[in-house]
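Intended use. Records like the one below are meant for learning the mapping from a protein sequence to its folded structure. Do not use them to infer anything beyond what is encoded.
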Amino acid sequence: MVPHIPISTIMTKNIIAISPREDLDRVEMLFNRHKIKHMPVISHGVIVGMLSFTDLMRISFAETAPEGSRSVNSVVYNAFTIEQVMAKDVVTVTSDTSIKDVAKLLADREFHAVPVVDDGEPVGIVSSTDLLYYLVKQI
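Structure written out for the chain above:
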C-alpha cells in the first residue's frame, strides 16, 4: 500500500447535507433514498454537526418495529430537533489527508464517518465503508 494516498481519491464528493432546521421525518427519507448512514449538518456554509442514521434510531421506537423496517414514528421525531440529536464536536480532515491517517482517526475516535473540508468549505465525506472498499481493492 502506498503510504500517502490522499483521502480525496476515495471520498464521496456529492455530499448529502442538511440544515439544523430540517425536519427529522425528511432526514430519515434522505437517509433511505440515498442509502447513506451519515450526513453533515451545515449552517451558513459551515459544518456544525454530524447526524447518523443510528442517531435517529436512538430516539425512535425502532426496537418495536418489525425486523428490517427502517420507518419510525413521526410523533417521536416531532419531540426532537436536529441540534438535539446531532453530534456537535465534529472532527474534519482535509482532502490531502492520507487514507492511512483517516483510517487511524476513525479507528481511534470510534467514528464511522468524517467530513472533508478545504479552506472552510465542505468538499466531501468519507466513511468506514469507503475505507473498507479501498482495502478490498488492495487485496
